[in-house]
Amino acid sequence: MNISFSPPFIDQQVIDEVLDTLHTNWITSGPKVKALEDELMAITGSPAAICVNSWTSGAIMALNWFGVGPGDEVIVPAYSYCATALCVLHCGATPVMVDILDDLTINPEAVLARITPRTKAIIAVDIAGLPCHYNRLNELIHAKDVRDLFVPASVKQADLGRILLISDAAHSIGASYQGRPAALMSDMTIFSFHAVKNVTTGEGGCICLNLPAGFDVATESRYLKMLSLNGQSKDAFTKSQGGSWRYDILFKGFKMNMPDICAAIGLAQLRQYTAVLLPMRKKIYHKYLSAFMAQDWFIPPVYADGIRESSCHLFALRIRGISEEVRDELIAELALSGIQANVHFIPMPMLTYFESLGYQIADYPESRRQFAWEISLPIYPQLRDEETDFVIDCVLDAVNAKIGSVEVPALTD
Ligand SMILES: *Cc1c(COP(=O)(O)O)cnc(C)c1O
């Protein structure tokens, strides 16, 4: 069998929606983007959604909106995709990396320890689809002593009067927190619709706003739309309506808008996401969970804990105590059986560029430990039952053969 890691979900509905876009002759930002934003507001419960051309663009826009720049710090987990820190660097600010908990989400106490008068924002990553510990993170940023430390240096910063909490929800569309959409737990939630994510537009992303009272959502949403489109007073679609050609450039915007041809793909997926696609992911996730549960090397990923519920973006298999080398050998053996597995993530301090900036993996022991143990298995709606069974059999064979042959250190926790 040949089992790819994370192919996009392209069914007839997706194809029809894209063809519809082509037939209308309007392929850049227009009605499909608007329809996708409406669907996103519905699924996240957010009062505003601004589609952009990637998560990275959305994060740069969010930080720029808040006035984050040189001399500022943004706290991010060391265990994430590089974009979580690169967006901060693109704004001229400094990513302050902190370690994770054993559920792979950012450690709120480590966040607290790194807050300084320079801290402007926190980017919490809902890794694998599991929401972060948002109650604790919100408690931190609202605490009087933390608020007293905050030094506002822009109008938005003064209006908010505290650290901005951004959720990196690249993995977590459809995740929930205390029975509500997880996107309601931060000031801004940014999704990625990159080709491998739960919902894809090829490349794309979305900023969902959940700003506190005092901010006018419609005004901020309009501003962010313009920020994604050169600071132009009218978008191309509005301009194309008869007689409406004149526009102005009001400020130094970016060019980060999402085209309709991309939105069409995500729109057709999102319409069937809650009822069909997400349950199919969850079914595979639970099949993996029950298949591995009896193995004493298996560290189950958190699906739900009474407060948080995952969107099952990744199935992060973790094999207690193995070394990075053994993990890599296991992935190579799965590849020989035709199974593409992956690792999420190489902690950023282990990547050449971040190392060159002075980040050291020794400062993030939990990230390093979890990285060595982790193998992400294929999980997507099109994965058939017999394919899931095959993955399970191959993993059990490979790991049990390996565990029998190598010394595994005793449990340390
Ligand atoms: C994919 C991903 C991103 C980046 O998304 P793009 O849309 O490719 O910019 C950011 N953070 C995490 C955790 C991701 O997995």
TrEMBL record:
Domain of life per record = Bacteria
- Biological processes per GO annotation: polysaccharide biosynthetic process
User: Keywords of this protein's UniProt record, alphabetized?
Assistant: Pyridoxal phosphate
Matches recorded under Pfam families: DegT_DnrJ_EryC1 (PF01041)
Q: Which residues carry this modification: N6-(pyridoxal phosphate)lysine?
A: 197
Give the molecular function GO annotations: pyridoxal phosphate binding; transaminase activity
Which residues are named in the active-site annotation?
Answer: 197
Q: By its UniProt entry, which InterPro entries does this protein fall under?
A: DegT/StrS_aminotransferase, PyrdxlP-dep_Trfase, PyrdxlP-dep_Trfase_major, PyrdxlP-dep_Trfase_small
Which protein family is named in the record?
A: Belongs to the DegT/DnrJ/EryC1 family.
UniProt name for this protein: Capsular biosynthesis protein
Taxonomic path: Bacteria, Pseudomonadati, Bacteroidota, Sphingobacteriia, Sphingobacteriales
